[in-house]
Amino acid sequence: MEELELREYWYIIRKRLTMVLAIPLIAMIASGALSFFVLKPQYEADTTLLVNQKASDNPSLEYQMILANQALVNTYSDIIKSATIERAVIQNLRLPYTLAEFDKMVQVTAPDKSQVIDVKVTDPSQVEAVKIANALATEFQQRAQQLMNVENVQIIDPAVVNPDAKPVKPNKTLNIAVALVLGLMVSIGLAFLLEYLDTRLKNEEDVRRYLNLPVLGVIGDYEEK
């Protein structure tokens, strides 16, 4: 029974094989054209911050300070993405972005039970991304001293320009592969939909398949000369 069903599926696909192959091919060409010629390359720069207070001679007190720093990491991550910090960076660097556009460019991550904060910035220019990442780190470091009245934020890895850096977006290979998969899904689904909507009997094979009747004869097509 399963073999019969598989044959039915293959018959439907083979019946509209041109369409099944054409749609994924068109999708791949369109995705490749967008990835190579339309979408702007995006570069990424990141800087790393460490939340850490001065070591204490008391082991018990030092452990409590580490726990406190870990608890502050999430708070600090939210402050970095705050409108106040981002607006200050936009104004200082005179960036041509709105606050909403700038916020989408910035990503702040903090691993669990860690005192490290990673700030990533994506921009069409790698140099500009490096400037923004370092400006965000510096601005936050200064604001943390003012707002929290502490000096426990250190910049341990500032962003640097890498001459060999490659764009992180768009991922051309991934985009084309996704277009191929989606194109196949659409084309195969469309083939089954057309087969379901088409109730006509076009040849003797359809008569045997759907009516389960023997074919006694076939009237051929003739053209007048």
Q: What is the total tally of β strands?
A: 4
- CA gyration radius, whole angstroms: 31 Å
What percent of residues are in strands? 5-15%
CATH architecture of the largest domain: 2-Layer Sandwich
How many helices? The count is 8
Q: Report the span from N to C terminus.
A: 48 Å
- The CATH class designation of the largest domain is Alpha Beta
Mean pLDDT: 83
What's the helical proportion of residues? Answer: 55-70%
CATH topology of the largest domain: Alpha-Beta Plaits
**Strand and helix order:** HHEHHHEEHEHH
**Helices and strands: which structural class?**
alpha+beta
The global form is elongated
Largest sheet: 4 strands, antiparallel
Give the secondary structure arrangement, pairings included.
Blueprint: H1 2-15, H2 17-38, E1 43-51, H3 59-80, H4 83-93, H5 99-105, E2 106-109, E3 116-123, H6 126-148, E4 153-157, H7 172-197, H8 204-211
Antiparallel strand pairs: 1-3, 1-4, 2-3
Helix pairs in contact: 2-7, 4-6
Keywords: Cell membrane, Membrane, Transmembrane, Transmembrane helix
GO molecular function: protein tyrosine kinase activity
Transmembrane segments: 20-39, 174-194
